[in-house]
Amino acid sequence: MKDYSTVFFDLDGTLIDSGEGVFNSVEYALKKFGIEVADKSKLRCFIGPPLTVSFKTFYGFDDENADRGVVYYREYYKDKGIFECYVYDGIEECLKRLKEAGKRVMVATSKPEEYAKRILEKMGIVKYFDFIAGATMDEKTRANKIEIMQYAFDSCGVSPDDTIMVGDRLFDIEGAKHFGMECIAVLYGYGSREEFEKYEAEYIVNTPADVAELILDRG
């Protein structure tokens, strides 16, 4: 691994475990359509992709209903679900080590930027980030990980050549590959080793401490 100056982190499943809030919000939205969720673990698929994509892909919604689903989702999420989450053990120490080593640390998430900032502030770790890049509230602009990463590059004058991505789903790997970047895939989130191997993540690690060790000791 080269000596990268900048590290992009995904949010859900990488910095925080947001499962409870996401699952509760999706369940709330689906009930508005008369759809009951028997097993919330089946909603893990909603961690990672933009919401409209998830409603279309996993429940067959058309564009109109997908947009309605997002509205219902946010009725629950905006005040309650947003904070039904926690920072993974070891993340703060990982971020602290990276910053002390002089790395620029940024967030690149498909979650709306407004929500990402509120969460990071509430969780007490916003101070570690040089920039937070997320989707717009309508999820029409910066609607996927590639567009969000491009937004971060353009906003901060950062080069993909000097940046590595850290994430827990195939979308993070695909985004990194689009820019010719390497990706560290984390097993403690919502992805799997099979997924990471299929999409050819360059590195697969078990813990946040492993992320820091890999970047700092191999750089």
Word description of this protein:
- The strands form two sheets. Strands 5-4-1-6-7-8 form a six-stranded parallel sheet, sandwiched between helices. Strands 2-3 form a two-stranded antiparallel sheet.
- The protein has two domains: 6-17 and 85-218, 3-Layer(aba) Sandwich (Rossmann fold), CATH 3.40.50; 19-83, DNA polymerase, domain 1, CATH 1.10.150.240.
- The termini are close together.
- Helix 1 crosses helix 3 (63-77) and helix 4 (91-100) packs parallel to helix 9.
- 44% of the residues lie in helices and 16% in strands.
- The chain is built from nine helices and eight strands.
- The relative contact order is 0.17.
- It is an alpha/beta fold and 219 residues long.
Strand proportion, as a percent range, falls in 15-25%
Specify the number of helices. Answer: 9
Second rung of CATH, namely the architecture of the largest domain: 3-Layer(aba) Sandwich
Q: Report low-confidence residues grouped into runs of 5 or more.
A: none
User: CATH class of the largest domain, anyone?
Assistant: Alpha Beta
Tell me the strand order in the biggest sheet: 5-4-1-6-7-8
Radius of gyration: 17 Å
Q: What is the straight-line distance between the termini?
A: 6 Å
Which shape, going by the Cα principal axes? globular
Helical/strand content category? alpha/beta
Helix content range: 40-55%
Mean pLDDT: 95
H/E element order = EEHHHEHEHEHEHEHEH
CATH superfamily of the largest domain: HAD superfamily/HAD-like
Total domain modules? 2
- Count of β-strands: 8
Q: How would a crystallographer describe the biggest sheet?
A: 6 strands, parallel
